[in-house]
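WARN no homologs supplied; continuing
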Amino acid sequence: MSVKEALRKAIETLTLHRFEEAPLEAEVLLRHLLGIGRVELHLRLGDSLPPEQTAELDRLIRRRLSHEPIAYITGHKEFFGLEFRVNANTLIPRPETELLVEKALELAGSHTSPTIADVGTGCGAIAIALAVHLPQAEVYAVDISAAALEVAALNCERHQVTGRVHLLQGDLLQPITGLDFILANLPYVSDRQMQGLSDEVRLFEPARALSGGPDGLRQISRLLAQARDKLHPGGAILLEISTEQRTDVAALAGRHLPGANVKVLPDLSGHDRAIVIESKADKNLAIDPGEGV
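OK structure emitted
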């Protein structure tokens, strides 16, 4: 069987099972198998595909037919123009999360040496993207999962930021203090929404990185409570949220960081996707002594 025939067969199989991006996915899997780029694949369409590679391609296709995400099959995903290793211990980075990085770069760019935390770092995508683009920053990447941090360590090595991204295992902000910026893509899917997730997400991505409790705000609320004593005056918290949570998260911000400036940011699709909470420059003015945490 030629490479071209194998590609055609893969496309037909995925199309038959109603995968909307069958041609692209078939090509990605074949390129992954052969370890080549798109241009080289098209130059090699006439080459013969050995039986063992034909069998391996069939195995990859079967994995995709079970709805296993392409990123887990290939073991990598692009985020903010960088390639990251991923596996079933880490959430797959998504394009909408790049909004957090873009806004953080805007806010931190004028700082001489900002101290930044990426909470719930997973594969390290946010922390590493920031470290790559902010060489003057000190970045902490925190996760409760040791397995996720192992993946993040590999990605730090790949992007040569091992000395500037400090990987810490712990519960949210517990391992660190004194931060200028806190970024977090925490679990924010409600219990009801968890049941409606696609098979790709629900069956394969780590539930711990998705499930935010009855209203989806369990971890976000805890983070904001901790941030009160961790964030420098004038610092900012950037959170990914779902559209329907913006009012509740703004209320939580007002409770835990009184007087903070709160702004909601839309993603490229126009959906409210991130919330920026900027604390007052004078911490004593930002906190009401009678307010309970």
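Strands lie at 76-79, 82-85, 115-119, 138-143, 165-169, 179-184, 231-240, 261-266, 272-278.
OK
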